[in-house]
UniProtKB/TrEMBL annotation:
This protein is an auxiliary protein of DNA polymerase delta and is involved in the control of eukaryotic DNA replication by increasing the polymerase's processivity during elongation of the leading strand. InterPro entries: DNA_clamp_sf, Pr_cel_nuc_antig, Pr_cel_nuc_antig_C, Pr_cel_nuc_antig_N. Its main location: nucleus. Residues 75-137 form the Proliferating cell nuclear antigen PCNA C-terminal domain. Residues 2-71 form the Proliferating cell nuclear antigen PCNA N-terminal domain. This is DNA sliding clamp PCNA. PANTHER family: PROLIFERATING CELL NUCLEAR ANTIGEN (PTHR11352). It is found in: Nucleus. The keyword Transport does not apply. GO terms for cellular component: PCNA complex.
Length: 150
């Protein structure tokens, strides 16, 4: 199987809390050929989703409230947690739909070499790790960049 991201860039590692139910509803606006970009700015309570279809010349934008994560505070000083992730919408939609069968809240952790999507529910815990695709891959335009480039 190909790696999920062609390329991506992240400034700092971050964790996000998303409602699987709300995310599923937002994904109803995306098409199979759309590319998804995610943007979160440090200190904000929302995530921005952009669905782009270059062939149809169509952009769809959505804003989703983030949920507060129930976790121990990390012993990290003041840092900006900015990242944008681009990956095929259909792939992200299937992944979140599958994770939604396990629990209601997905946690997304972004590091310099991967993006981890995890969910915990009554059945247990599932984690999906996505890594950048090879540079020469033509199987999608997935990448993570600085959200200010969004």
């Amino acid at each position: 199987r190909n790696k999920a991201f062609e390329s991506f860039k992240v400034q700092k590692e971050m964790s996000l809390g998303l409602s699987m139910d709300h995310l599923s509803k937002i994904f109803r606006v995306c098409g199979n050929d759309d590319q998804l970009s995610l943007r979160v700015e440090a200190g904000q309570e929302t995530i921005f989703l952009a669905f782009e279809d270059e062939k149809a010349k169509t952009d769809k934008l959505a804003e989703l409230k983030l949920m507060e994560l129930e976790q121990e505070p990390l012993g990290i000083g003041d840092m900006d947690y900015d990242a944008t992730i681009k990956m095929p919408c259909a792939e992200f939609q299937k992944m979140t739909r599958d994770l939604g069968q396990i629990g209601e809240t997905v946690t997304i952790r972004v590091s310099k070499d991967s993006v981890r999507f995890s969910v915990t529910g009554d059945l247990g815990t599932v984690e999906i790790v996505q890594r950048p695709r090879n540079e020469g891959s033509d199987s999608g335009a997935d990448r993570v960049t600085n959200p200010k480039d969004f």
